Known about the structure:
Largest sheet: 7 strands, mixed
Helix content: under 10%
Oligomer: single chain
Shape: globular
Mean pLDDT: 96
Number of helices: 0
Radius of gyration: 13 Å
Distance between the termini: 37 Å
Number of strands: 11
Structural class: mainly beta
Amino acid sequence: VRLVQSGGGFLQAGESLILACVASTRIGILDSVAWYRQGPGSQRDLVARISGENKFEYADAVKGRFTISRDDAKSMVYLEMNDLAPEDTGTYYCNLNESSGGFYWGQGTQVTVSS
Length: 115
């Protein structure tokens, strides 16, 4: 299974960006999808997740600014990021956690926000 990400780049504070992730496998309704962020020298932290029970979870720092969505028919996961801030800088990873036990990461995409 491969997760291929697109999007990312260099932005100014206040701008918006959408990250996309396409899976090479069908995303089932019981599977969880998520986006994580990793800063330089830090661990990979959860940014947003949609669980297999269709529950949404966001990191406190992005609530109200970021929106995660999924299109299972297209095997796509999106992260809409609005009002970006320098603290949002990092490498973003798409994640698929299958109910069957499979656990996969995208290749990562860099988002850099300048003030």
